[in-house]
Amino acid sequence: MTASSQGRRALVLDLDGVLLDTRPIMRQAWQAVREHHCIDVPFEAYEQHLGRPFDDIMERLGLADADLVHETYAEASQQSCELAQPFDGVEEVLHAFAAADWLLGVVTSKPFDRAAPLLARLGCPFAAVRTPSGEVRGKPAPDPLMLALVDLATDPASAVFVGDMAVDRECARRAGVPYVHAVWGYGEPGSPAPEIADDPRDLLRLLGTGCESGPFVAGSLL
Predict the structure, then answer these.
(1) DSSP result, the chain
(2) Band of the pLDDT at 212, cuts 50, 70, 90?
(3) More confident residue, 180 or 1
(4) Spatial separation of the C-alpha atoms in residues 38 and 185, rounded to whole Å
(5) C-alpha closest to that of 218 among 139, 141, 145, 155
(6) Rounded to whole angstroms, how far apart are CA atoms 197 and 215?
(7) Which of 38, 64, 168, 174 is the S-S candidate for 142 at Cβ 3.0 to 4.6 Å?
């Protein structure tokens, strides 16, 4: 990024449950895991931990052989990727923010090889995509969001993170980035109530793309 981008605002979003409805993929992939590995854990139990790295979810579910399970899950996910659909209004909203000179980024716990094809379907200029890699801690740690801001050359007070799970909210809090909860996603907003967007188009109202600043106080930890 050049120095000229340092003053621009950044909209960083989660992928699953915010940009695309990937629940049908996840449900089908988890069913493949249950059948292949004889695991008696319902999808609803797996779903409670969405947003965390896969190994973290396996540990929380008390399941062994996380690498083998992940291999099965990833293969089944790739085979059913066509089931994912953008949420209504997402594409036009992303283009509106880009037209208003906002930088766009994505922070997801989905591996890059599965995230990239899904994001490509949106046809938007994402300037940063952070996925699990190496020694970087996954959400709810602030690491991936902070690294995305480094990629974007943007300060936390000039960014907004849009998520739908408790781990997204905690990640934003720990990174010092204002948070907006996507009600159309998979998780509850929690309490105290954060800033809430009822649907993707509501982000345009909340963040005022035609204004110099949004509704947040600099450094807000919503």
Answers:
(1) --GGGTTS-EEEE-SBTTTEE-HHHHHHHHHHHHHHHT----HHHHHTTTTS-HHHHHHHTT-S-HHHHHHHHHHHHHHTGGG-EEPTTHHHHHHHHHHTT-EEEEE-SS-HHHHHHHHHTTT--EEEEE---TTPPPTTSSHHHHHHHHHHT--GGGEEEEESSHHHHHHHHHHT--EEEETTSSS---SS--EEESSTTHHHHHHTTTSSS-SSPTT---
(2) very low
(3) 180
(4) 29
(5) 155
(6) 13
(7) 174
Tokens 């954060």 belong to which residue? 194
- For residue 135, give both structure tokens: 């020694």
What is the C-alpha to C-alpha distance for residues 44 and 30, in angstroms, rounded to an integer? 10
How many Cα atoms within 13 Å fall on the side-chain side of residue 31? 7
Q: Which two tokens stand for residue 155?
A: 């300060």
Model-wide pTM > 0.90: no
Q: Given pLDDT bands bounded at 50, 70 and 90, which one contains residue 214? A: very low
Q: Helices 23-37 & 66-79, crossing angle to 10 degrees? A: 130
Work out the average pLDDT over 175-181: 98
Interval 114-160: pLDDT, tens = 999 999 999 988 999 999 887 889 999 999 999 999 999 999 999 99
CB-based contacts of 85, cutoff 8 Å, min separation 6 = 20, 21
